[in-house]
Specification:
There is one protein chain. This protein has 471 residues and is an alpha+beta fold. It has helices spanning 2-7, 10-58, 60-67, 113-120, 158-210, 224-276, 286-313, 328-342, 361-378, 435-445, and strands at residues 91-95, 101-104, 127-133, 136-144, 150-156, 324-327, 347-352, 355-359, 384-391, 396-402, 449-454, 460-467, 469-470. The strands form three sheets. It has a five-stranded antiparallel sheet with strand order 2-1-5-4-3. A hairpin with a 4-residue loop joins strand 9 (384-391) and strand 10. Helix 8 (328-342) crosses helix 9. The radius of gyration is 51 Å and the shape is elongated.
Length: 471
């Protein structure tokens, strides 16, 4: 059943839901109306029986004298026959204290065990019973008479049952008509209600075919469908921005790779030409050959670093490390040890207070290494790189790395964390322009921020602010 329901279209499901809701309401109201009418009829019959029985029980002698005998429509040749062979009006008879019939209307009523107990005084409350007389069903009431005996009054249920049956048929016809109308109404409602969804679907499908993310979907109104349309437009804008950023990343990466690849190709071609033509080997001295190989090694290293940083920037959430409690002081210490091996001429002065952050240790160490590498690159020989880690207000920590280099020019300061951005003074130095971009991305992914500022009288200070608590 669930699978069948899921295979229906939204139009069909909405139509079925509307029809089902209306049908349930119609059936419940009809059933309630029928039961209410039946209860009203039964209460009315019971009240009439009690009234008739009470009237006869108040003066049984008068009623016996008035009736005289059992002669009625069935025994009097001059009387008119009752319809359907039944007596008109209620039938009644009087019982003495022994349960014997003292008199009554022409139609005899059965003297049941309960009626006998009422006549004898054993049962003091009136007894209501359903009895069959001939081909008809009667409702009979036996009421005790003061001083002994009882009065039995019965009424034919055929007229009331026939009325209830007719009422039930009318309700059934009304229910069928109501359910049919509900089905048509549900279909109309589903078409009208889902028309904006259909238009939105067509617009989205058109975007999927044309791949045009710059054309927004027309949205009107303030209802839920309009809200969905605005959300789709926001998603298209985000996708367009992501595609532009991806294209820019590929173009910038291609541009950055072109220079080392060109250098590598030139050097390799020169070495190959010497190998193929030994007579020209004297033109390449051993010192020049060593310089070529060193240049090749440097260019290959630069390409490897660029590739690693590109992978770091484009890493998906699912391929990243698990988040855990990390002692940031230990992470920064490990990063200092790595960078100090590459820059032994520098002094790294560290003041690290234990701080616990929730993050990915590998990415945090990579962030710290990039900051320290940048500081080491710009620091003069025998310079000092100062590292401080301390709590910064409730729930945050601050990591600052300060170098003693020339500092950042004011026009370059807003762009230091942009991908592939390299200041004019840095273009002659090794680097990809991605190190600080990775720093900013890692800080943002850990709920923090990265800022850069010049230091008086010279140097640059990189500050990382992350959520953390003192260990």
């Amino acid at each position: 059943m669930t699978r069948w329901w899921r295979e229906r279209t939204l139009h069909a499901r909405l139509s079925l839901l509307v029809a089902g809701a209306v049908a349930a309401a119609v059936l419940l109201v009809s059933a309630g109306a029928w039961f209410l009418v039946r209860e009203i009829q039964q209460d009315k019959i019971a009240a009439e029986l009690a009234s008739d029985a009470g009237t006869i029980a108040a003066n049984p002698a008068y009623w016996l004298a008035a009736e005289g005998s059992r002669a009625g429509y069935g025994d009097d040749p001059g009387s008119s026959p009752a319809p359907h062979g039944k007596e008109l009006g209620p039938c009644w008879q009087i019982l003495d204290s022994t349960g014997a019939v003292a008199g009554g209307t022409a139609t005899p009523l059965p003297v049941t065990t309960a009626a006998t107990e009422v006549a004898a005084g054993t049962e003091r409350k009136p007894v209501q019973e359903e009895v069959t007389l001939g081909h008809g069903d009667y409702l009979m009431l036996t009421m005790p008479i003061k001083g002994g005996g009882a009065v039995q009054v019965a009424v034919d249920r055929y007229p009331d049952d026939r009325l209830l049956t007719l009422f039930a048929v009318l309700l059934a016809v009304g229910c069928a008509a109501g359910i049919g109308g509900a089905a048509l109404l549900g279909r109309t409602v589903s078409r009208a209600g889902l028309a904006p969804v259909d238009r939105l679907t067509e617009a989205v499908e058109d975007v999927a075919v044309t791949m045009d993310l710059t054309r927004p979907i027309d949205v009107a109104g303030k209802d839920e469908v309009a809200r969905l349309g605005r959300s789709v437009n926001a998603m298209l804008s985000a996708l367009d921005a992501s595609r532009r950023a991806q294209r820019a990343l590929v173009e910038d990466a291609g541009h950055e790779m072109r220079t080392p690849l060109t250098s590598i190709r030139t050097n390799v071609e020169l070495l190959l030409s010497v190998e193929r033509r030994p007579e020209l080997a004297h033109r390449l001295t051993p010192e020049d050959r060593a310089n070529l190989l060193e240049d090749l090694d440097a260019q290959v290293r630069e390409l490897a670093t660029l590739t690693t940083e590109l992978v770091e920037l484009s890493r998906e959430e699912g391929s990243r490390e698990a988040v855990e409690q990390v002692d940031l002081a230990e992470v920064v210490t490990a990063a200092i040890n790595r960078v100090q091996l590459r820059a032994p001429e520098l002094t790294f002065a560290a003041d690290l207070r234990p701080v616990t952050v929730l993050g990915r240790p590998g990415e945090l160490e990579r962030m710290a290494v990039n900051i320290l590498d940048n500081a080491a690159k710009w620091s003069p020989p025998a310079g000092t790189v100062t590292i401080r880690l301390q709590p910064d207000g409730p729930g945050f920590s601050r990591l600052t790395v300060t170098d003693t280099g020339p500092g950042i020019a004011s026009e370059d300061l807003p762009h230091v964390f942009d991908r592939f951005y390299r200041a004019a003074a840095a273009r002659s130095m090794p680097g990809s322009g991605l190190g600080l971009a990775i720093v900013a991305q890692t800080a943002a992914q850990h709920g923090g921020t990265a800022t850069a500022a010049p230091r008086t009288p010279h140097g640059t200070e990189i500050t990382i602010r992350l959520p953390g608590t003192p260990a």
